[in-house]
Amino acid sequence: MSLPYEEPAALTGSFSVVESFRDFGYGTEEPDMDESAASPDSKPRILLMGLRRSGKSSIQKVVFHKMSPNETLFLESTSKIYKDDISSSSFVNFQIWDFPGQVDFFDPTFDSEMIFKGTGALIFVIDAQDDYVEALGRLHLTVSRAYRVNPEINFEVFIHKVDGLSDDHKIETQRDIHQRANDDLADASLEKLHLSFYLTSIYDHSIFEAFSKVVQKLIPQLPTLENLLNIFISHSGIEKAFLFDVVSKIYIATDSSPVDMQSYELCCDMIDVVIDVSCIYGLMEDGSGCAYDKESLAIIKLNNTTVLYLKEVTKFLALVCILREESFERKGLIDYNFHCFRKAIHEVFEVGSSAQHADRMRAGSPSNSLASLKYAALNGNAV
Ligand SMILES: Nc1nc2c(ncn2[C@@H]2O[C@H](COP(=O)(O)OP(=O)(O)OP(=O)(O)O)[C@@H](O)[C@H]2O)c(=O)[nH]1
User: Which InterPro entries does the entry link to (predicted)?
Assistant: First the structure.
């Protein structure tokens, strides 16, 4: 039985402007004429590869199309490359190409030049519940071939379906796969080819976390975003802040304190609550209106003196913060600093018109307002 193709969540339809990066095929809030004219195939891409039934389509459907994990049981095997352009619904502005498990690199119709040249990341999915010897052989063949065409690709290995494994077994499997894959590369004198490994499952948040990290590596402005988040939280008494792509719940940046899974899950759940409540009570009677827009703001006080604070940053992005109740007493300060932060984010992504962008590029100077941004410090002084 095949499931009908699922449109991204309801909130996507209400978005009206395009927000995206420029350097890696990302644009500005004003739709760029060149980009809108560009063929979807020219967009940078993330490839999902791996053996049959390893879980590639499930990952793509769960992360980007809100399919519930249980529904993936009914997904049919992919028989040809499925190109999914998610840029209309998400900040993540590239294509995801889902490959069929039986792809044959030696088939003359397989154009590796065309496929690997415009690729930003290649995700190789290994089913950890299955015998992975064949998958390791396939991984080696795939990455070595892709590396020869394009050494700039980020190679990411998802050790997938780990929900069926005990904690010890997970660690052991990861160690073993890591060791064998790198030995194979060393034997082929491909030590420079770097593989990153993630333990993933569609039945918890690990798949969103892993995808977040894959996407972050493709964001040229990541250090700037992290810096802005660091400044924002340190001046506002906030413990942790994530910049979320609302539709996919991928976090595209966070401050430099370590991410613990629980905080990330808490923030993901908050997004779900906000969107659900907004869909029920925020839309017009005829169903028109936006579930997520400029006014989107939510504060949730937990019974352990923790406060969750969500605010709209751009039409695709939300800032979700975790802070203590005492710090939230200075809400005015937080709001002021958020205002500065939001402005800076818009500057980073060149929210201005494409003409302004071109002018700045010609002048070679960063934006003035970003340089002159002033946060209010906790002691009241501007910094
Ligand atoms: N337990 C578990 N099962 C999963 C997970 N992800 C996917 N599956 C299951 O794995 C099976 C295969 O998933 P698909 O997404 O169709 O696999 P695929 O790699 O796209 O398969 P092909 O299209 O044949 O290449 C489905 O029954 C999924 O429900 C996971 O994280 N945990």
Answer: Gtr1_RagA, P-loop_NTPase, RagC/D
CATH fold label, 45-218: Rossmann fold (3.40.50)
CA-CA distances (angstroms) from residue 266 to 148, 150, 207, 269? 41, 38, 15, 5
Q: Is the CB of 367 under 6 A from ligand 1?
A: no
Ligand 1 site, residue 75, Cβ cutoff 6 A: yes
ipTM, two decimals, is 0.98
pLDDT tens sequence across 263-312: 999 999 999 898 888 888 877 777 677 777 777 888 999 999 999 999 99
- Quick one: pLDDT at residue 248? 86
Query: What torsion, rounded to 10 degrees, do the Cα atoms 298, 315, 340, 367 define?
Result: 170
Beta partners for residue 310, in sequence order: 298, 320
Of all helices (H) and strands (E), which one includes residue 171? helix 167-187
* Helix, coil or strand: residue 302: coil
Q: What is the mean pLDDT of each run of 10 residues along the chain (383 residues)?
A: 33 27 33 39 78 92 90 84 73 80 71 86 94 92 92 96 92 95 93 94 94 90 92 93 90 92 91 86 73 82 92 89 91 92 85 47 43 45 42
Collapsing DSSP to helix, strand or coil, 45 comes out as strand
Ligand 1 centre from 169 Cα, in Å? Answer: 20
Give pTM, 2 decimals.
0.79
Query: What number does the ligand 1 atom closest to the CA of 200 have?
Result: 31
Ligand 1 atom closest to residue 76's alpha carbon, by position in its atom list: 16
| CATH 3.40.50.720 corresponds to the domain 221-354 | no
- Atom number in ligand 1 closest to CA 99: 25
Q: At what angle do helices 56-65 and 206-216 cross, to 10 degrees?
A: 80
For residue 356, how far is its CA from the centre of ligand 1 (angstroms)?
A: 46
> How close is the Cα of 243 to the center of ligand 1, in Å?
29
Distance (Å, whole) CA 168 – CA 170: 5
Query: Where in the chain is CATH 3.40.50.300?
Result: 45-218
